[in-house]
Each structure stands twice: as structure tokens, then as C-alpha cells.
Here is the input.
Amino acid sequence: MRNMIRPLAAALLLSSALSAPALAQDNSVIRYVPQGDLRVLDPIWTTGTVTQVFGSMVYDTLFARDAKLQVQPQMVETWSVSQDGLTFRFTMRPGLAFHDGTPVTSKDVIPSLERWGKRDIMGQRLFQSVAKLEAVDDRTLTLQLKEPYGLVISSLGRIGGLIPAVMKEAVAKTDAGQQVPEHIGSGPFTYDPKEWVPGSKIVLRKNAKYVARSEPSSWSAGGKAVLVDRVEWTYIPDPSTATNALVAGEVDILETPTHDMIPVLKRNRNVTIQRGDPLGNVGTLRPNHLHPPFNNVKARQALGYLLDQEDYLRASVSSDPEDWKVCWSLFVCGSPNDTLAGSEPYTAGTRAERDAKAKRLLAEAGYKGEPIVILQATDFPIFSAASLVLAASLKRIGANPDVQPTDWNSVLTRRAVKKVPAEGGWNIFFTSGSGVSGGDPFTNPASTACDKAWFGWPCDAEIERLRDAWTRETDPKKQRALLEDVHRKLYEHGTWFTYGQWFTQTAFRSNLTGVQNSPVRYFWAVKKG
Here is the structure.
């Protein structure tokens, strides 16, 4: 029935789209439908996209990342590093001020970075190597390392994770285990909590006193010149209702229209469809390394030989290849760390040949037909379909998949269980991550630190040694060589596999200009009318 209703809804929408008159709009206001409800406002509390959008509007950062994924100074005017590479000196731009008019000083920056460093994965690793942060004067501070570390500036220009937002000193000293009580930043938009209706609406106003950089806007870098008076967020959970609102001109931007509505929207001359994050999302097939059969490396490698990415992407994402990409880089195709090192054996030969290898490897791992428990998140269509594709592949070689349907929240709970599958544990689950946040050996699920690793608990001392060496290396060529060594070892170890890369689309009214195709929705440089 659901498959019949969707085409009907699309047909009705198309009819109304072609016949409805456009509503008169205030060109000083952008009305935005985010992909989810904004429940958490503290940008170092969750990596959730809606929170990071809010954080990028209200707060500023020392450094930022442009559309080429290059780190650029943002609040920083000048910076330098000592000859031994251990002392970084940062001087902020003049005139920076918080929304309440108080100037931004080094004494605000230091506790802001320290709090971020307790929660963000890149921040945590950076502060392992930091000896001290010190204020030189109101605009200048130094960061002193106790050992060489190659990711200082990259960490401070973080995107896709928890942004190192600069807050007022008193707020920044809030315990990292608690959310901050107020949101007074120095960014291009101001926030008034009186206008926030949880689950429904939030309003952000142009910060008329914001001092923008002179460079062109590019993602979170450059001049964040705001060209409207306010941005109103309205959360509309029903996709059809949200799409109708865009068609009618009641809203201006729909962050993530559903794939089945996109063809309809493309036929409306008043709507523009644009790819969102150019690095998209990357699928993760995660085996449990604790229990048979995947406690054996040969069984994990068997999964790689069974993995025909096009099957997964067509079944779980879309039949349209423009919506996805076959990608075997664990560090994300199109990112600066894109590499295929070590993936070659899994893509060579015919499907029949790869199936034969997978069957042989499973047998050599001691597999004798025991159930392979796959957690199927039925309320996440992409993960749900991927679970069924894997089950069909396992059956094809004579294995015994046990697909256990459940909701995503239950998967999140159960994946933390270390018991054997027969007692409430698991063998495999599917998930995904933002391409921009997982494009290196440190921020994605590459850890093989045994009990300290991500769910699945892989354990390999050599991979950990290489990952640590990569973070410490300051020579770009040597760092790249280490990255490829890590990637090769991850495939040899069967730590996890990617089942491809896919892209979301953003829909907006065609009278908007300056909308960036970025991993986070940025509202500076966007003009309406």
C-alpha cells in the first residue's frame, strides 16, 4: 500500500505545483526546513547536523574550512609556528565582539578550546600533545606542544564533527559534561531564546555588528556576509507536507527532500535542486570482532569479497546512479585522503570468482553454518535494505544469515552488547557517516584499540601504531605514506567495509542565490529575490 500511496502523492503534488500561484514573500527573511528537530543547541555536545548548523550561525571559530577542504584563518588574523614546530602563536582580527557587545579576547578562546578538547575526538587527540595554552594579550595566544603533532591547524579548522566554537569565558568554563546555559556567540547571526519553540520553530537574526572577512565566502571560511535580516527554521517532520510548503512558496529551503519527491520538484520552474554535501554519506558494514565467525580475519575478508557495492546502492539508495557512487576508499572518495590502497583484491575478478573466495575463506575460518546475526534497522530504509542485500549474498554461498528486524534506537542499544549473538549480541550491523567527518585515519571507525575501539571492538596493535604515527607526522609526504599504510592494513584486517557513497539533495526556491553545496547549511552570502 505504501508503494501505491507515494506515486499518488507525487502526482497530486505535481498537479498543485503546476497550478498554484506563487505566494508573495518578504525578501529579507529565509524560511528553512531542517532535516531534523533542533533539540540540542550546544555545538560541542552533539555532531547532529541541525546543531552544527545552529552553531555555525551563532558562533565563530579560529580557523575554518573552505570548499576545497583547505583550512583557512577565520577569527585569526595572523599565525606562526616556531622552528621546532612546538609553539603556535595566533593573533585574532581586531573588532571581534560577542552579541552582547563585549570584545572577544584570548581569555575567551582558551577555555572554549579546552572544553571542546574534552569532547571532540580530534580535540581530545590534540590536547594529548598540548603542554599549555597561554594568553599573550587580549588578541594573541600561544599553544605549546609537548611533542610534535601534525594536525594542529587541521583540528582547529574542524568540520563535520564538533566545531571548536568560541564562547564567552564564563560560559566556556561550563563543565564539558553539561550543556552551556546560554548561547551568546560572535558569529554572523544572533539567537533569542524567547523565539525558540522546541519541536517547531527557531529564529536567528542578522548580527549587524559582525565583522566579516574580505575573502569570498566558501563553506565555513571567508567573508560571512549576511544578506537577509533573519532566518526562520520550521521543523516539518512529514516529507509530503514539507515538499508542498516549498512548492507553495511558504518556505524557501527544504534541506533533505525525499528521493521520490525530487523528480516532481525538478519539474517545477520555481524550485532548484542542488546536491548537498559533495562528499555525501559513506556506508559502513561493521562486523563484530569478538565472536565467531568474524573473530577470524578470514571470515571478515569473506565479507569484502561478497560486497558488490552497486547492488547495495541500487537497493538501498536509488536506481539513479547520479544519487550514488561506487567507492572503496575508507577515507572517502573525493576527499584529500582518498586512496584505494589494499582494496584491489576485493574488486578483482567476476562475481562468481569472488563468491568462491568468500566461501573458501569462511570455511577456513571454521564456519560450519551457525546463524550470522544481522541487525536490521527497519526504520532506516538504507540500512534496512543493505541488511537484506548482505543476507542474500550470504545465502548465495551457503551461509546462514539471521536477519533480526528492529528499530534504529534498538540497534544503537544492542550494538554496545558484547555477549555472544545467541545471548543478545550480534555479528553485523549497518550504519553510515558524513563523508566530510570521516575522511582520515583518526575520525572514522579506524580505531583497532580493542576494548577502547568503536562497536565491533577490532584489535590490532600495528594499525594503532600507524594511526598514531600519522597524527604525529609533520611532513606531508611521509604523512601520506602512513595514511596509505593504514588504509592497506585496515583492508587486510577486515576492520570494516564501506558499501558505497551516496548524496543527498537540497531543494530551494529559485529566487535564492548563493546557496552553497556544503556539508552544513550556511546562510551567509545567500540572497533572496
User: Anything to note?
Assistant: The longest strand covers residues 281-287. DSSP finds 16 helices and 21 strands in the chain. The mean pLDDT is 92. Residues 2-19 form the longest helix (18 residues).
